[in-house]
């Protein structure tokens, strides 16, 4: 079975311009590359212009598509507004915004400085609201339909120790997604979210599983389907959610985690540890009593 095949048909995103924050690396890069393969024009943005330009060149070579690399710190509204204006003046329009940029690291919460806590809130929550407000106001003013797709996490609703600023910020992004799905639908603006489980990226793995933590806490072991995600699997879902095929999907968060968060949530799920022989014994003793 291949998890690395593209799902949508050729040209499914032709005519669309898609802006991906954090699009130079990791999951943003993989989703952006698939959008390009499906015929979209792409804007990738983050702080590091050199990385963005390198990625843009690589993507254009691989697909023959058009990629605009724009430096922008999503925490700074002036930079976001300039980035948006540059994207519009280059491609004439932007149809889709994928809010994917994020910052995160693990720490006991009491060890965090206010500054460290605020930095994560600023990138994830304020960064997403800066980009969302800029794009939304522009779409509403020009009567242009639009699509937001926001990358959250499953602990946006369960919460999680040791990543508390990220959990608080992603919960805020999810609330914003659902709120605007209703409020801005009248402007033909859809808002959805994806909550990915573990998908290996250099960024996430180095910050969340540094050193030999990755061996001690093998993420695949926490996933009922027994593996981590392939980037193409996420890209397939993202491409569907930004495409016109999902025009009736609005205000939804779709989890793609192989069942990871539910495995932690179900009260009796750890009975997986009970060997078959013990189940046989329990069944036999129940049989005797009846
Ligand atoms: P990543 O490669 O580190 O991606 C994060 C991106 O955000 C980088 O490209 C970074 O680029 C950009 N960024 C950080 N601060 C920024 C700022 N102030 N302004 C603009 N851009 C900024 O990690 P990833 O794993 O692909 O994560 C992508 C998304 O998936 C994130 O939203 C993350 O929370 C989510 N996610 C990932 C996983 C996973 O298993 N990988 C699981 C659940 C959710 P610069 O450094 O150039 O700014």
Automatic annotation (TrEMBL):
GO BP terms, alphabetized: fatty acid catabolic process
Give a yes or no for keyword Signal in this entry. Answer: no
**GO molecular function (one):** 2,4-dienoyl-CoA reductase (NADPH) activity
- This protein is called NAD(P)-dependent dehydrogenase (Short-subunit alcohol dehydrogenase family)
PANTHER family for the chain: PEROXISOMAL 2,4-DIENOYL-COA REDUCTASE (PTHR43296), PEROXISOMAL 2,4-DIENOYL-COA REDUCTASE [(3E)-ENOYL-COA-PRODUCING] (PTHR43296:SF2)
Q: Which domain of life is it from?
A: Bacteria
Alphabetically ordered keywords of this record: NADP, Oxidoreductase
Instruction: Name the Pfam families for this protein.
Output: adh_short_C2 (PF13561)
Q: Where is the signal peptide?
A: none
Similarity comment: family membership: Belongs to the short-chain dehydrogenases/reductases (SDR) family.
